[in-house]
Amino acid sequence: MKAGLRAVLPVLALLAACSPERKGDDLVFVSDEEANVVHVIDGASGAKEGDLVTGARPRGLALSPDGRTLYVAASNANRIEAWDVAGRHRLHVYDSGSDPERFAVSPDGHTLYIANEDHSAVSFLDLASGRITREVKVGPEPEGMGVSPDGRLVIATSEAASTAHFIDAATGRLIDSIIVGSRPRDALFVGGKLWVSSEQRGTISIIDPVSRRIASVIDLVAAFPDLDSAQAVELKATRDGKRAFVAMGRGNQVAEIDPASFRIVRSFPTGTRNWGIALSPDDGRLYAASGLSGDVTIIDLKANRVLRRVTFKGRPWGVVAARR
Fold first, then answer.
1. Is position 166 within any domain?
2. Chain centroid offset of residue 175 CA
3. Residue 60 and residue 142: Cα distance in Å, rounded?
4. Where is the YNCE-like beta-propeller domain (predicted)?
5. Which residues pair with 289 in a beta bridge?
6. Is the dihedral of CA 94, 55, 157, 287 positive or negative?
7. Is pLDDT of 2 > 60?
8. Residues 4-22: b if buried by 16+ CB within 10 A, e if exposed
9. 264: domain range?
10. Taking Cα atoms as reference points, which of 319, 205, 224, 204 lies closest to residue 271?
11. What CATH number is attached to the domain comprising 217?
């Protein structure tokens, strides 16, 4: 090796070590119900990129189908805010009905279905007009919201009644209500089935949406006997439907479930009280927001390992990831 090259190599190595980690292709938005902001971080490095100042107590988050608009439920302000993902500025403020928490976006992007927790109702918000077109009465303390891939069926979970409600999206008619595990939190369609998580019971009910009968139950308490508290909160699945994940609340983990067999494949450690989870747009990373430890865990789903944790001063609640 030439003397000049030997001199240059240590310098190059030092520069590589000191250079910042490459940014990811996605931005991660984290609602903080205590700080009244949505934190923005880089999906790969976890580097903090700023805050969106929102109405009081931001909780539920969702993206428009094209990924360009972020919707935020400001629970104590009784509104839904629309933010431009690329420019990070607020586009619109919508009257959401009383105490919005979680909500779902229709597949065509025209309607938000909003759980009004202290009003025992689901509001249909038409985004074009900015008006609530109908209000559907459901059980007490509705929280989880889901919508079928074809947009025809809306699901609301009632925490206090341990019930999943089936609503016709076109008419707002309440079709059926079935009993699930205690304090249901989230509803997600995976592979033609409806999954409903139960925080207190620590189960996921797998429901046939046609017959509206429970076909199977995944029991996290039985699967994790060494945990003091195995809960089931937010649900997410990869776009190909081959991997599913559940935030385990005070179990302080995210469990991965095989949707074909309903078998628990593995789990990843998170911060304390993991409430919200999200997948990166390419399904390569998972983000877990933990309120009591005030952090977000970034998990590499290709290597199946925790990459890092990003700590905030408040109480992270929800999380979504969008392309830059």
1. no
2. 26
3. 13
4. 37-185
5. 276, 296
6. positive
7. no
8. eeeeeeeeeeeeeeeeeee
9. 186-269
10. 319
11. 2.40.10.480
C-alpha angle 274/310/301, rounded to 5°?
Answer: 70
Residue 24: pLDDT band (50, 70, 90) is confident
CB neighbours of 34 closer than 8 A, spacing ≥ 6? Answer: 314, 315
- The whole-chain average pLDDT of the chain stands at 94
| Cα end-to-end span (Å), the chain | 43
Write down the pTM of the prediction: 0.92
The answer as to whether 253 is a domain residue is: yes
**Tokens found for residue 238:** 């990869």
* Paired tokens of 181: 């595990």
- Greater model confidence, 313 or 142: 142
190 has a pLDDT exceeding 60: yes
Query: Does a structural domain hold residue 265?
Result: yes
Q: Binning pLDDT at 50, 70 and 90, where does residue 138 land?
A: very high
Q: Is residue 202 part of a domain?
A: yes
Long-range contacts of the stretch 124-133 (C-beta < 8 A, 24+): 124/172, 125/80, 125/94, 125/96, 127/82, 127/94, 130/92, 130/94, 130/95, 132/95, 132/96, 132/97
- Residues 205-248 have pLDDT tens digits of 999 999 999 999 999 999 999 999 999 999 999 999 999 999 99
238-254 residue pLDDT tens: 999 999 999 999 999 99
Residue 57 has a CB neighbour count (10 Å cut-off) of 21
Question: How many domains is the chain built from?
Answer: 1
Count of C-beta atoms within a 10 Å radius of residue 221: 15
Burial class (CB in 10 A: 0-12, 13-18, 19+), 212: middle
Find where tokens 């005070």 sit.
250
For 2, counting Cβ atoms within 10 Å of its Cβ (0-12 exposed, 13-18 middle, 19+ buried), the class is exposed
Place of tokens 């929800």: 318
